[in-house]
Design a protein that fits this description.
The complex is a heterodimer. By secondary structure, chain A is mainly alpha-helical. Among the domains of chain A are: about 5-35; about 65-115. Chain A has helices at about 5-30, 40, 65-85, 85-115. The termini of chain A are far apart. Chain B contains 20 helices and two strands. In chain B, helix 13 runs parallel beside helix 17 (about 405-415). Chain B starts with a helix and ends in a 9-residue tail after the last helix. The chains are: A mainly alpha, B mainly alpha. Chains A and B meet through helix 4 of A and helix 2 of B.
Chain lengths: ~120, ~500
């Protein structure tokens, strides 16, 4: 057995232990617990409220545009935080770089705005 | 420790001139989006096309200056060794820019006819071209992956630009799902190769194989990574058995976009393949050349056999483009400088043939199909277009006095020099089989029996006609005097230079 395969043996043992432990615990409780099913017990659990309607509900597709725009600015924030902390080290070059980056993203937002993406129809 | 390093931070030295072509294209795309969306009145579609063509030409001029610098001072690399500046990147920059300008001109009239969104088409075209150029000049696997994604994501959207057609939706969905899948393969390959060699930089990967020599160490990881990267790239260039998306996507996409996919996107995939496999993995070439040889044999056979059974011209061209990927793979598997320059020559000449072909298809085929019977009697309706299309088809069949013949000759010679005779023979046999389908379209066009008196007048817009004629001229010129392009391709064999 090569070194690579041997090092994955640990992973396999770990996985087997995890499956075995869960199976053991669920098995013990199945043997020990009393079983008296009723209608209210079989209902889908919705945080204590009675479930309403079917489980194949449509969700509003319009939200996804906002989700996409949100992700863009979320990523922008991820880049801006470390940059802001160390700005004095990066100097003028870093300042210009970041403003080019922000300008391109702002342009994207402006484009989306003008195209009417932000309007709730 | 890290803080101490940061306090005397010094960014990598950047040589701006070689990056200028990409910057010009990005700025042009932003200008198009900004002007067309913010201006109060409707901006003419000609503005987008003019900016696209102008920036493409300007980027080409800059690339020419960079090429002169490289010839004087030798190849180099910039941005901490992540971007290579050599003849190879200039070659693919010029190839991509040619495809960009031609597609933009063909797309101009197509967009007007099909009422598509012109600014978005132009902007996406420019951004995908940047992706292709980044891919071809990347010296680092991460940079290469970013280029690949910039190219692919733009193409997914461009495939869907006629979103009211069912075929376009199908094409875009298939392309997106399978493309994302293959990108994941490629990325996982990068991760494994990084794990095996300790670097994503191609220079360091090549250096790793030079230092370990014959000592075998961690090579399982490397082999798996290499195979996954090959799968990812084989998908992008539509090599069998990873070609299943190609016919549906080429058929459903707008015709100019299909031409662009078959030229620029395919060339970028091969650029990445050559840079990674021929240069960085050159010490292990005994391991990957047999795989590529078998891949090319399957691709050649599948491309030919499937193409001759099609009745739809666009689908036929899609399968023929699969076959052409097989020819380029024949040159790639040789893993020699001659083979690489043969692949470059083939890709360059094929670009003009395929863009010209899809330009003609965009003229004749409307939304109701591209059956081969539509081409009957074209020679009497539009003689110039028929002559040009004949040139493209003969070129793709590899008839002498077209650039396709020289390309096929160079490719097969590289296999013969490498003493892979079975593949050379196969490539020749397949070129005879594929000649059938090209000749079938040609005989349809020149059929004298067909009555064309009551056929509707075929309008040929100026920009599309210009592209078709220029592409046909290039195909003939490089078929008769190929020497200058052969020398350019020879100077463009990729080299790796470590970053300063």
């Amino acid at each position: 057995m090569s070194e690579l395969v041997r090092s994955y043996l640990t992973v396999a043992i770990f996985a087997a232990a995890a499956v075995g432990l869960v199976g053991l615990l669920l098995g013990i409780s199945r043997i020990l617990r009393p079983q008296r099913p009723s209608v209210s017990k079989q209902m889908a659990y919705e945080s204590g409220v009675d479930p309403e309607g079917g489980d194949w509900a449509q969700s509003q597709i319009r939200y996804y545009v906002f989700a996409v725009l949100f992700v863009i600015f979320d990523v922008e924030a991820v880049f801006i935080f470390p940059w802001a902390v160390r700005l004095e080290v990066y100097g003028l070059f870093g300042l210009i770089e970041m403003f080019i980056f922000i300008a391109i993203l702002a342009l994207g937002l402006g484009y989306a705005w003008r195209k009417g993406v932000l309007r709730w129809v | 420790m890290i803080l101490a390093q940061l306090s005397n931070f010094e960014g990598p030295s950047i040589d701006w001139l070689p990056l200028t072509p990409q910057i010009i294209l990005v700025v042009a795309a932003l200008v198009i989006l900004l002007v067309t969306s913010l201006s109060p009145a409707k901006v003419s579609d000609s503005f987008s096309t003019a900016v696209t063509v102008g920036s493409g030409v300007a980027a080409g001029v800059v690339a020419w200056f960079v090429w002169n610098d490289i010839r004087d001072e030798g190849p180099s690399s910039t941005v901490a060794g992540a971007v290579g500046v050599d003849g190879f990147s200039i070659f693919f920059t010029i190839l991509t820019l040619s495809a960009l300008v031609a597609t933009s001109l063909v797309g101009h009239s197509y967009i007007k006819r099909e009422q598509m969104a012109a600014p978005e088409f132009s902007a996406l075209l420019l951004l995908t071209a940047v992706g292709a150029i980044v891919m071809a000049s990347a010296n680092d696997l991460i940079v290469l992956f970013i280029g690949l994604e910039a190219l692919s994501i733009g193409l997914y959207v461009m495939a869907a630009m006629q979103f009211r057609r069912r075929e376009a939706q199908e094409a875009a969905m298939k392309y997106f799902v399978l493309g994302a899948f293959s990108s994941a393969f490629f990325l996982y390959g990068i991760a494994l190769v990084y794990g095996a060699t300790g670097s994503t930089n191609l220079v360091n990967i090549a250096a790793y194989f030079n230092t370990i020599g014959s000592r075998i160490n961690n090579l399982e990881l490397f082999y798996v990574g290499m195979a996954l990267m090959l799968v990812g790239l084989a998908f992008k260039v539509a090599a069998a058995p990873f070609h299943f998306w190609a016919p549906d996507v080429y058929q459903g996409s707008p015709s100019p976009v299909s031409g662009y996919m078959a030229s620029a996107a395919k060339a970028a995939g091969f650029a990445a393949m050559l840079r990674i496999f021929f240069v960085a993995f050159s010490r292990t070439s005994a391991d990957w050349t047999p795989i590529v040889a078998v891949l090319s044999a399957i691709t050649l056979i599948v491309g030919a056999v499937m193409a001759i059974t099609q009745n739809d011209v666009k689908r036929m061209l899609a399968f023929s483009s699969v076959g052409h990927a097989g020819y380029v793979l024949v040159a790639v598997q040789a893993a020699t400088s001659d083979g690489t320059s043969a692949a470059l020559f083939y890709l360059f000449t094929y670009t003009f043939m395929v863009i010209g072909s899809f330009a003609v298809v965009s003229l004749l085929g409307w939304n109701d199909g591209h059956d081969v019977s539509r081409y009957e009697g074209l020679a009497r309706r539009r003689p110039l277009i028929a002559v040009a299309f004949t040139v493209f088809l003969l070129g793709q069949a590899g008839v002498p006095f077209t650039s396709g013949f020289v390309g096929k000759f160079l490719v097969i010679r590289s296999a013969v020099d490498d003493e892979i005779y079975w593949l050379a023979v196969l490539a020749m046999v397949v070129s005879v089989i594929t000649a059938f389908m090209y000749l079938r379209i040609i005989s349809n066009m020149w059929d004298r029996e067909v009555d064309v008196a009551d056929a509707p007048r075929l309008s040929v817009p100026l920009t599309t006609g210009f592209v078709v004629v220029v592409c046909a001229m290039i195909t003939v010129v490089y078929g008769v005097i190929p020497q200058s392009l052969i020398e350019f391709a020879r100077d463009a064999v990729p080299v790796l230079v470590a970053g300063g």
